User: What shape does this take?
Amino acid sequence: MPEAAELFRAEHLTKHYGASRVVDDLTFALRAGECLGVIGPNGAGKTTTLRMCLGLAAPDSGTIDAFGRPLMAHLREAKQRIGVVAQFDSLDPDFTCRENLRVYGRYFGLPAQTIEARIPGLLDFASLQSKAEARPGELSGGMKRRLSLARALVNDPDLLLLDEPTTGLDPQARHLMWERLQALLQQGKAILLTTHFMDEAERLCDRLLVIDRGRKIAEGTPRGLIAEHLESDVVEVYGDGAIDVSERHAALADRVERSGETAFFYLRSPRALLEALAPRHDVRYLHRPANLEDLFLKLTGRQIRDES
Assistant: This one.
């Protein structure tokens, strides 16, 4: 099978705000039909990176090529092929769902006949047929996010840039959004996604770019990164005796981390630890495979970060 065409490439991007280097020598590429996830703690530079990819902020150094041409030199043409879902909804509250789609389509200079022909399919894609004449204030959070996604598709883009598209949604709405995004990937569209939800990253992303303080610290497939950086098994121990367990049985694990009253044992052979825990009644424990959240915490730390 031939390799999919490369749609987007950023090389050695650097961006400063004052004395702070927000993005530091960042390089990545994206092909048709691929979802690249960008994950990192607050203040890691994710949103600034997306802004540069949209031409909303110019890099201090580095290059961005979109669809084989320099982005900034051909920004208008590139935007014709890009769809955007921002972190916060920017729907027009005075327009109905149908009108939001219609007006947004005009921004791209699309013929009225083309826009009107696309609107029913976009409403169907967003499961909003029955809400076509409702205004955003009458919609649930999940409906608003689906309308934002439908609006981003009005120009039939080849590339979607999504900044935390499911923030604030309940589980049912998140799963419906995932289903819609997977359908777009199957159509050959490319997605550049930022998210704080590790299950979302694992579900949607073909590759992950992990950044911290503006720098790339890891890149690869979700399962490949887990295999490269983590032990295969995790045993979470919590309860009154968790600290005692972490001290008494630390030698049974490759490493042990504590967070509050929970001890996390990372190990490749869990049998001895599970046998040691079985007779204890002062703790509860969960044995599970290592996951992306474990990867995220190992690479970026457990300490909470401020946005600044």
